[in-house]
Write a structure and sequence with these properties.
The chain has helices at 21-37, 46-56, 81-93, 98-112; strands at residues 12-17, 58-62, 67-73, 114-118. It has 120 residues and is α+β, with helices and mostly antiparallel strands. Strand 2 and strand 3 (67-73) form a beta hairpin. InterPro entries: DUF6693. The chain crosses the membrane at residues 28-50, 84-104.
Length: 120
């Protein structure tokens, strides 16, 4: 027997992201400026925060297509600073090869820090 935790009885079956092109352009401009100001260091945390913004703009839909909740990614750099530092060192030591693996690890870390917040 399964337990349904959604408030309306509809099961979450789909995700819908409303992260638009305007927001994308705004994020790219902000991160471009941060990259210049920090001489490229901002690019190390860019994948975390850019993907976090997209996750936080995603709604959970039930089987009828009605929004029943949203994703809430609680990632913050302070709690994962050790993770970032280890990957920086790995990228340097492997002359960039670890960066391919880093991209996938970023998604894993973010998904593990994401919860569904149901609408009431």
């Amino acid at each position: 027997m399964s337990i349904d935790h959604s408030p309306a009885g509809g099961r979450p079956v789909r995700l819908k992201c409303d992260f638009g092109i305007t927001e994308t352009i705004g994020q790219v401009i902000i991160w471009f400026l941060l990259t210049i100001v920090t001489l490229g260091i901002a690019l190390i945390v860019f994948p975390y925060y850019f993907n976090r913004v997209v996750l936080n703009r995603t709604e959970v839909l039930d089987d009828r297509g009605v929004a029943i909740g949203r994703l809430n990614c609680r990632f913050d750099l302070g709690s994962s600073l050790g993770h970032v530092i280890i990957w920086i060192l790995l990228i340097i030591v492997t002359l960039g090869i670890a960066a391919f693996f880093y991209a996938y690890r970023v998604i894993r870390v973010l998904l593990n820090d994401t919860r569904i917040e149901y609408y009431r």
